[in-house]
Amino acid sequence: MNRVGQDALQTAVLEIRAAVKDVRVASDWMTRFAAQHAVPESQINRLDLCLNEALANVISYGNAAALSEPVVLHVAVNARQDLREAAVTVSDAGVEFDMTRAPINERPHSLDEAKPGGLGLLMIRRFSDVLTYRRHNSRNELTFSVQWVSASDQAS
Amino acid sequence: MPIEFEDSSDTLRTIRISGRLDLAGTDEIATKFAALATAKDRRVIVDLTGVSFLASIGIRSIITNAKSLQQRGGRMVLFVGSNEPVAKTLEVTGIDSLIPLFSDLSAAEAAVAA
Description:
The complex is a heterodimer. By secondary structure, chain A is of the alpha+beta class. Chain A is built from six helices and five strands; from the N terminus they run αβαααββαββα. Chain A has helices at residues 3-6, 20-36, 41-61, 64-68, 119-127, 151-155; strands at 9-16, 71-78, 83-92, 130-136, 139-149. Chain A has a five-stranded antiparallel β-sheet with strand order 1-2-3-5-4. Chain A is globular and about 50 Å long. Chain B is α/β, with parallel strands linked by helices. In chain B, helix 1 runs parallel beside helix 2. The termini of chain B are far apart. Chains A and B meet through helix 2, helix 3 and helix 5 of A and helix 1, helix 2 and helix 3 of B.
């Protein structure tokens, strides 16, 4: 059997608390899993940025339910297609918030005009290749993915 | 130490930050960074070459301190050297258009002194 076919889709799930301390736990877990499944470092860095911003949003703006219920993380690496993909889903129990539709602050023209906030949303949109949202079982499910063509595919 | 500094003169200070500027990392350096960066009439180079990860919370800290410094008559520039991931994050978020960003240290020194 084709080895790529056997190992095509690799997934893992982790539950964390919506707490600053657990953000690094999540980053380390995602990074380790992605590296084990040959996701390039540059793509892992993009996923890590998105993951941090998504969790920071839950921690900073989440309501009591978001902060008291576990945050569920799902990571998937898909090597079945010519176009490789790694995706992370962040599921939280907070009030409905669709990051894919939330408005992004206008870019300031000077340092005086710059206001803190809004950068996380911009970063998730810019660093992900695909960004989707759904409300499911009273939870927010934000999925961001990065895509790349593997070096072996390019050489063949 | 995730943050340290060097004063080259009475007005020029280099602040070197290292490690992850995520929620925890930024919180760890926030007080010291503000204290070091916001002296009156100070010119400050923030050296980010040792930063392995830059999240939006870290960028917010840089912006806040750059604004505060500017309001006190000072100026901040950022030095990233060959740290491409950090440079890209700053460019993608448009921070390089608000705070001058340099990969060359002598260019950063010239700009902050101008």
